TrEMBL record:
It comes from Siansivirga zeaxanthinifaciens CC-SAMT-1. It comes from the Bacteria. InterPro entries: Aminotransferase_I/II_large, HTH_trans_reg/aminotransferase, PyrdxlP-dep_Trfase, PyrdxlP-dep_Trfase_major, Tscrpt_reg_HTH_GntR, WH-like_DNA-bd_sf, WH_DNA-bd_sf. The keyword Transcription regulation applies. GO terms for molecular function: DNA binding; DNA-binding transcription factor activity; pyridoxal phosphate binding. In the C-terminal section; belongs to the class-I pyridoxal-phosphate-dependent aminotransferase family. Residues 22-90 form the HTH gntR-type domain. The keyword Transit peptide does not apply. This is GntR family transcriptional regulator. PANTHER family: HTH-TYPE TRANSCRIPTIONAL REGULATORY PROTEIN GABR. SMART domains: HTH_GNTR (SM00345). Keywords: DNA-binding, Pyridoxal phosphate, Transcription, Transcription regulation.
């Protein structure tokens, strides 16, 4: 017995992939809608009964019922009791498109390339790499397993139920500051020694968004931006995308060499300098108090902006965290970038910018274009966590764990490598600056490590004539994992040394 034309068409058209997360009934519904939009199934066409379609696709009849109910709820079919299911076309429909030169299934393949030219950017080339290894050394990310999942669910749910939330969503504009802005200002004034109001503050999705907005305001083509020799690759990409020229200055045990700037650059030749507030990325070297004063004086004299990135303020293990330079900036020379909630899940973290009021006013205009709505639920939750002291408690709790991990990693490296690598234990942060002496080819080290189920991202490898080091992030590894990772790294290191001796 031959199948009906509709059954034959659906047999060619519909492909079910049970390995993906999209439910089967959604997959099939979308493909039938696509067929209606392309006029393969015309108005009034009867669709197969649930038993027939179930056998055709090898799925449960209840799934077929769900498919037809989904199509009916969207207005694509009419289910007539005791008669069947019939195609209808919504009044505001998308014009049908017939792929006359292709098979039915090929008409669902979207074009891979544009039919028109556009500007691609070398500066923004992705640094992401495909990872299949079970063990990874990153540049110093927090451990999500330390975050109390049930607590976040409770906090988020409570924020969703706040009656004021709907009214906030419906607001077109407001002349008052939000609770979040006020709470964040109070928190930063207390923890970082600021004396700011919400006029000096904007909240963004991330530090990268903050830096992007600041760069668009501050930089134009051929402006000179100074960064430390070996620096944050993401920040450099953002600066270069504006057309700015990135130049490096030496970094030693006291941080950026300010004397070098004075000796090699003249007044008005520098537009901005990018510094890390606590630990230079990637070397973890701290800018000394003396050099901070020198840099502030030089910025005032040379008329350049200081972009102070406080990316790891929350992770201070030894002693008290130094107050940001921006907290003592009386001349408006510093733009301060920070992050709130590093002891929270990434989706609950937020970036922020602190700067003089005139710059923040312009930055808010950019933010309106990029992220007009923001995340009101996140802001509501963070406001409450700040007010109730939960942010502070989570930071304190996690600091103890990360400090133990730093010390345990140091012990493992000492025992395993036996003076073949050197490092200094930083006073905070989630990474060590691990130097190999004598030098080895780090790309080869990464290649050998991958053979032993250990992934070293290319973005943590730093090698030139005078440098052979990796930024060894330990935050996401517990002590058992640290021991395993160090052992695997040593095996990879031995393989590289052996290959070099045979060459």
């Amino acid at each position: 017995m031959m199948n009906s034309p509709v059954v034959e068409l659906l047999k060619q058209l519909i492909f079910v992939d049970k390995s993906v997360v999209t439910p089967v009934y959604v997959q099939v519904s979308q493909q039938i809608i696509n067929a209606i939009q392309r006029s393969y199934l015309t108005e009034g066409t009867p669709l197969p009964g649930s038993r027939t379609l179930s056998n055709l696709l090898g799925i449960n009849r209840n799934t077929v019922v769900a498919i037809y109910e989904e199509l009916a709820s969207q207005g694509w079919v009419d289910i007539v009791p005791n008669k069947g299911t019939f195609v209808i076309v919504p009044e505001q429909k998308t014009a049908g498109i017939k792929a006359t030169s292709q098979g039915v299934h090929q008409a669902n393949i979207y074009a891979k390339t544009t039919g028109f030219p556009f500007l691609s950017s070398f500066n923004l080339a992705s640094t992401q790499e495909m990872v299949q290894s079970n063990f990874i050394i990153n540049d110093g990310q927090p451990d999500l397993r330390l975050h109390p999942t049930h607590q976040f669910s409770k906090w988020y749910s409570a924020s969703m139920k706040r009656k004021l939330l709907v009214s906030k969503w419906n607001q077109i504009g407001t002349v008052t500051y939000s609770t979040f802005e006020l709470e964040l200002c109070n928190y930063l004034n207390i923890t970082r020694g600021f004396h700011i109001t919400p006029n000096n503050l904007i909240s963004t999705r991330s530090t990268e968004m903050s830096l992007y907005i600041v760069s668009r305001l501050l930089l134009k083509s051929h402006d000179v931006v100074l960064v430390g020799h070996l620096s944050n690759y993401a920040a450099n990409m953002i600066f270069q995308q504006t057309g700015a020229i990135v130049k490096t200055i030496p970094v030693d045990d006291d941080g950026l060499n300010i004397d070098y700037i004075r000796e090699h650059f003249t007044k008005n030749s520098i537009r901005a300098i990018y510094v890390c507030a606590h630990r230079h990325y990637p070397t973890t070297k701290t800018l000394s108090a003396e050099r901070r004063l020198q840099l502030l004086q030089l910025a005032k004299e040379y008329k350049f902006a200081i972009i102070e990135d406080d990316y790891d303020y929350d992770f201070q293990f030894d002693g008290t965290a130094m107050l940001p330079m921006a907290s003592s900036d009386a001349h408006g020379m510093i733009i301060y970038l920070g992050k709130l909630g590093q002891s929270l899940f990434p989706s609950f973290q937020t970036g922020f910018v602190i700067a003089p009021e005139n710059l923040i006013s312009e930055a808010k205009n950019y933010l309106q274009l990029l992220d007009r709505q923001g995340d009101l639920i996140q802001e509501q939750m963070l406001s409450e966590l700040i007010h109730e002291g939960e942010i502070h408690r989570l930071i304190k709790k996690n600091i103890l764990v990360y400090k133990q991990r730093r010390d345990f990693l140091s012990t493992c490296l000492t025992e395993t490598f036996n003076n073949k690598v050197t490092w200094d234990n930083p006073s905070g942060g989630l990474a060590l600056w691990l130097k190999f002496e004598p030098q080895i080819p780090l790309v080869k080290l990464a290649e050998e490590a991958i053979k032993h189920d250990l992934f070293l991202s290319k973005t943590i490898l730093y090698q030139d004539k005078n440098t052979c080091a990796i930024r060894f992030g330990f935050g996401q590894l517990n002590e058992t994992e640290i021991k395993t990772v160090v052992a695997k790294l040593k095996i990879a290191y031995n393989s590289v040394i052996n290959n070099l001796s045979l060459a």
